[in-house]
């Protein structure tokens, strides 16, 4: 029984570069849901912190990039 | 371009092996599926490892999210520390650290670091430990477990798979000594439906175990997290937040939970 779809499972045939590119694209697209994401997906804090106030707080205070690591 | 969580793993391990990729990004590492916007790592339980991780995060302008401080005192009690920064492409990067992954024994974690190839900076948790970590409350994790288990030798797969067809297929040759109800059902000839039901019951028990485990942490963290919220930790520079969190945790967050079965938590 296949537990994940073919789309999920076709990673094995990819080269490292293709996997990097696929993940990178996926991560870009996934940013669109940031404001709607729960503050924590799992663990203790998912339940302790009410979702709405934290989501709102985060939406109002998108972190700014203070520094970028030297990528050389 | 590339997986920023893989790149971070290499940065954390640049001088010495300090972390191992876990959870969703380890699933990507094993090429099972692309999942999780966050990065989770197992960090060595030493002050030096914590300091090195904090320094790398500070370089990237990371801030703490409300959570325990990245300090061996709380890590060793099963707590985890959470951070966030925005990368050069203005993408939100979330980084979580623990040293006692849930349901994985300490000796296994110690072996992971002791046996790590010093020549490779991209280290991920082993498959069996990843499966144990994935025994969470989330239903989707059990589909991933089935795929992860398929990468194991059959004599281990039968103990860990969540796939009823694999249980039925493997049981005659590899299940004779198993006490797992689904395997016993397969061996008894009771039919596929019985195996499916046994696996469903097992999953439900695992989810309930995880719920009980986290409930104890939730109760212990309530006052501390309220104080974090009042202190606006997420707006502080990293080092200032670290100091403040240690102060708050000292007063409000028990490093070790009272007896009752911490069982290798990751809160």
A few lines on this structure:
With 72 residues, chain A is mostly helical. Chain A is 46% helix and 0% strand. Chain A has a domain at 29-54.
Structural write-up:
The complex is a heterodimer of chains A (72) and B (267). Chain A is an all-alpha fold. Chain A has a domain at 29-54. Chain A has helices at 6-9, 16-30, 45-48, 51-60. The longest helix of chain A has 15 residues, at 16-30. The radius of gyration of chain A is 17 Å and the shape is flat. Mean pLDDT of chain A is 64; it is low at 50-72. Chain B has 267 residues and is α+β, with helices and mostly antiparallel strands. Chain B has one domain (4-252). Chain B has twelve helices and five strands. Chain B has helices at 4-12, 23-29, 47-59, 72-75, 106-114, 127-133, 140-149, 154-160, 164-174, 181-188, 192-230, 238-252; strands at 19-22, 38-43, 63-64, 81-86, 92-98. Chain B has a five-stranded mixed sheet, with helices on both faces. In chain B, β4 and β5 (92-98) form a beta hairpin. In chain B, α6 packs antiparallel against α7 (140-149), α8 packs across α9 and α10 runs antiparallel to α11 (192-230). The mean pLDDT of chain B is 93. At the A-B interface, α2 and α3 of A face α1, β4, α7, α9 and α11 of B.
Mean pLDDT rating of chain B: 93
What percentage of amino acids of chain B are in beta strands? 5-15%
Roughly what percent helix of chain A?
A: 40-55%
Question: What is the domain tally of chain B?
Answer: 1
Helix and strand run of chain B:
HEHEHEHEEHHHHHHHH
Tally the beta strands of chain A.
0
**Form type of chain B:** globular
What's the shape of chain A? flat
Beta percentage of chain A is: under 5%
Read across the widest sheet of chain B, the strand sequence of neighbours is 1-2-5-4-3
Number of H/I helices of chain B: 12
How far do the termini of chain A sit from each other?
A: 46 Å
Largest inter-chain contact set: A-B, 43 and 56 residues
Major sheet characteristics of chain A: none
How confident is the prediction overall: mean pLDDT of chain A?
A: 64
| Spatial gap, N to C terminus of chain B | 31 Å
What is the subunit organization of this protein? heterodimer
Structural class determined from secondary elements of chain B: alpha+beta
Q: How is the biggest beta sheet of chain B arranged?
A: 5 strands, mixed
Nearest-angstrom radius of gyration of chain A? 17 Å
**SSE pattern of chain A:** HHHH
């Amino acid at each position: 029984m296949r537990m994940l779809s073919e789309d999920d499972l076709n990673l094995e045939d990819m080269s490292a570069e293709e996997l990097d590119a696929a993940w990178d694209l996926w991560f870009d697209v996934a940013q669109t849901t940031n404001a709607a994401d729960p503050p924590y997906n799992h663990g203790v804090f998912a339940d302790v912190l009410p979702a709405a106030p934290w989501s709102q707080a985060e939406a109002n205070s998108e972190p700014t990039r203070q520094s970028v690591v030297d990528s050389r | 371009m590339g997986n920023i969580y893989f790149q971070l793993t290499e940065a954390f391990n640049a001088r010495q092996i300090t972390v191992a990729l876990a959870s969703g990004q380890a699933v990507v590492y094993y090429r099972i599926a692309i999942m999780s916007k966050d990065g989770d790592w197992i960090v060595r339980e030493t002050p030096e490892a914590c300091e090195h991780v904090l320094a790398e995060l500070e370089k990237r302008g990371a801030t703490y999210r409300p959570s325990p401080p990245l300090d061996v005192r709380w890590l060793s009690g099963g707590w985890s520390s959470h951070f966030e920064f925005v990368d050069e492409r203005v993408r939100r990067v979330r980084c979580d650290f623990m040293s006692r992954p849930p349901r994985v024994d300490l000796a296994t974690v110690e072996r992971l670091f002791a046996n790590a190839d010093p020549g490779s900076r991209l280290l991920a948790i082993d498959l069996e430990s990843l499966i144990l970590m994935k025994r969470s409350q989330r239903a989707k994790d059990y589909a991933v477990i089935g795929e992860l288990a398929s990468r194991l030798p059959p004599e281990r797969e039968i103990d860990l798979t969540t796939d009823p067809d694999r249980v039925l297929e493997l049981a005659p040759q590899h299940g004779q000594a198993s006490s797992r109800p689904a395997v016993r059902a397969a061996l008894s000839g009771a039919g596929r439906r019985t195996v499916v039901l046994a696996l469903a019951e097992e999953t439900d028990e695992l989810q309930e175990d995880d719920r009980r485990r986290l409930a104890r942490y939730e109760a212990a963290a309530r006052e501390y997290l309220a104080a974090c919220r009042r202190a606006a930790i997420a707006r502080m520079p990293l080092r200032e937040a670290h100091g403040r969190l240690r102060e708050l945790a000292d007063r409000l967050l028990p490093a070790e939970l009272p007896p009752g079965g911490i069982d290798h938590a990751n809160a």
